[in-house]
Amino acid sequence: MKNLTYLITAVFMATIVLNAQTSENPWAVSIGANIVGVQDDAVDSDTGFGVPHLSLSRYIAGGFSIGAQFAKNSFDINSISTDYLSIDGIVKFNITEGKYVPYLFAGYGLSKFGSDSSKEGNFPSTESARTILGGVGFNYYLSDNWAINASTSYRSANEAHAYNHLQHVIGVSFNFGAQDSDKDGVSDKKDVCPEIPGLKEFEGCPDTDGDGIPDNKDACPEEAGSAEMNGCPDSDGDGVADSEDACPDKAGSAEMNGCPDSDGDGIADNLDKCPEQVGEAANNGCPWADRDGDGVADKDDACPDEAGEAANNGCPAVPQKLIDFLQGDNSKILFKADSYVISNDATSKLNSLKAVLEEYPDASIIIEGHASEDGSSEYNQKLSEKRANSVKDALIASGIDANRLETKAYGETKPVADNNTKSGRAANRRVVFDRRVVIKIGE
User: Fold this and answer.
1) pTM of the prediction?
2) Hey, which of 101, 125, 161, 328 has its CA 20 to 30 A from 205?
3) Cβ(340)–Cβ(386) under 8 Å?
């Protein structure tokens, strides 16, 4: 009998040593003490307190476990010292889950009440009775592995030399046997990273860069960072993680992808070819060229080499006297049919124009020639060119610099009157003036 007890105890202690580093395990082994009280008025019996009570169980599913248990005790029955042994197979059902777990159990086994040690076997048939049992108990978990347990059960053993009795047990249990694929001490059931060895404080996941953020939550698992940056570093401290920062060594803004905008023109320095000068995105962050310095970019300046005004497309303001001339009758010179000869009346008008141009030496003009629809369009185009050139030549002859004069010819394409009437055709044979200032010459 003693040998069996020693063997069971040794197996139990070996199991603890081998599995003490695991958690949340399906196997449970327990050791404790038991109290047995005979429930039979026909005998005089005291209550016995004995050790050990041993059990081994395996969680199956849905709260159910199966297992086996063994108990040893001794007490007096009718003033005779009686040894007690029991061994059973049991089924257990956990009512709840958590730290405090009540359970129900039932089983079937053998109970022995006897003192004759000369008989062969621990459960000789003459002193052992088949037993049906049922009871309640609870486990109070101190950790994932260790729990305190207590239970009480009624054991029905009606055969000869046996008695119905109550058995109360108190002890400790150890859970073990769960799979731990990565051998990190965290069972696969609880391990968020079951295939990679990790740390218990990170639910079994590693922290490769040691920044206190587990790899499964770390956007940069191999670079130490901060929680605010999801585990990534922010070398320049601008609130943009290096992995997303186009300028990781220069503090910038999120709007500029982590880069600065030194000139404040809305273009990040890494994309700005003129980072110290306010410019435009269309010109790669550089200001547009402005040769005459009048504030109107050359691309928009009708007079890029002559300072002017934005309201006048970068050209100097048109003198009022020139405007009055161009808007008056003197700005139109008419020609006879099929002619580009300047009349005396036209000469008088050109003299007036010359006087204005001499008063404003920075002004320049365009001379536009036109024709009526008499003749072919090709002929009229050439005729309008000759009329514009004749006016230009007359102005040059009067002393006006040729660089201030430009000619354009439109033939019969821009009539100002009805070509089906004599008066209309006469009005279309013109040159008129305007500012480049454009001077248009009537047909």
Assistant:
1) 0.44
2) 101
3) yes
